[in-house]
Amino acid sequence: MRITSCLRVVVAAAATLAVGAGALPAAASSPAGPLTRYYDQDVRWHDCALGPDDTIGRELDAAGARCADLTVPLDYSDPGGRTITVAISRLRATDPAHRVGAMLLNNGGPGGPSLEMPPRMAKFMGKAAGKFDLIGMDPRFVGRSTPLDCGWDVGSTVFSAGRDRTGFERSIARGRDLAERCRRTNADVLPYVTTRNTARDMDVVRAALGEKRISYFGYSYGSYLGEVFTELFPGRTDRMVFDGVIDPARYSQALLEDSTAANERALRDWAVWASARHGTYGLGRTPKAVLASVDRIEEAAAEKPLRVGRFRLDEHFLPIVFFGGLGSDLDAARADLATAARTLARAADRERVKPSRWLTEMLTAMTTKAGSHQGSAQAAILCGDVATRRGTESYWRAIQADRGRAPFASPLTHNITACEFWDRPVEAPTVVDNDVPALLVNATGDTRTTYSGARQVRERWTRSRLVTVPGANQHGVYGDYGNACVDGRVNAYLATGKLPARDLTCDAK
């Protein structure tokens, strides 16, 4: 996956900005009172593998990491009440003489597990990794932390409205059903499955590790989590990197709406790539023909769900396959999507087909009970943060208004979600109005966290710096994209704590 390098970097003069300057507020120490027992708890490290089939645990153990479970209050306004656990992992600094401190890692989501991140990030960071204790953390109710599962028969809270009003009505029914299942099975915890509470858990982790400040690296949703943390706990951060930046002012239950145009462009770009490889994938010799193949597959799924191995794929979930494949413009990712599209085209012709490993993993997580845990957590976090009653017709109007410009993306990115039927959050969303020095990374064609969001954060956080990758349809650039320019700039910042004097540009190819 790491095949491109930076051909050109726009770098200004050598002046840099120091990060984390200034006195640490007294509040950054462990608080007195009922929360003291959480902040001062002993961290009991143990092997990460939970058994012989625990691949993640064995990989962490092989890398030299250790794991622990910290106790946190379910409700921070009632610290003497019910408690839950948060799972963390640690890969210790290998250069203790130059140790900076702990760096907390988040892989995105909402609801993405992050316990397994330290070994992978250590490879990306190179020598800079030796200065940090790398801390993976499964957010509350995610992964190995105290679990949440609403008992869904699917794993995705995101789905397409389909091609007509009938499909949209089914979307309304599905969203209402998913919300009701969560309310019926987990009403006692849902109000506390929020980003604000995860940020509070992060501060418990910080204190339990004995750190006055923590560094932080967050991908995608992880950028929003990091932004919220800086607002709730000012002065407690050191080196901060956000890759795929969410504008907190636009964080809502309709989080994907901003990505409509980006996904439509990415689909056209992929069609150009696939048409040049018609001999391999048979999807069409021109971009127009490839797009016609995609439309034919969608039409067939709307007529009757496609049989793909043991799966049934209808018009509501089929677009998510393409949406998932458009998160990267690397050849390997485009090939995975093209292979899946070829399989789906045959299924549209009602042939018996066997899905690839990539497609099998996606369909398992998306359309079966196997994905219920992560899907439930994702919905609970987003809806617990920002659920509002917009009215069902508002979603249909948004779909129809954009369908002409974005026939593929609009029914998915504007569609109704379970949040429309969720109970109102117990806390208002965090207003992030500070100015924190951080390194921001974003591709201009990012299909999830759009470039405009990164620009907005950069304008408000005047002490931050933005690394732009123009022309790339890539969500999450550092490490995974293989861009030596981006990786080098991030690692230089992490190693020195100094931001570039100006914003930078790293060519995609």
From TrEMBL:
Keyword line: Hydrolase, Signal
Signal peptide residue numbers: 1-28
SUPFAM superfamilies the record matches: alpha/beta-Hydrolases
Entries under Pfam families matching the protein: Abhydrolase_1, Abhydrolase_4
Matches recorded under InterPro entries: AB_hydrolase_1, AB_hydrolase_fold, Pept_S33_TAP-like_C, Serine_prot/Carboxylest_S33
Superkingdom field: Bacteria
Residue stretches making up the AB hydrolase-1 domain: 102-248
Any GO molecular function: hydrolase activity
Residue intervals of the Peptidase S33 tripeptidyl aminopeptidase-like C-terminal domain: 412-506
Sequence similarity: Belongs to the peptidase S33 family.
Protein name (record): Alpha/beta hydrolase
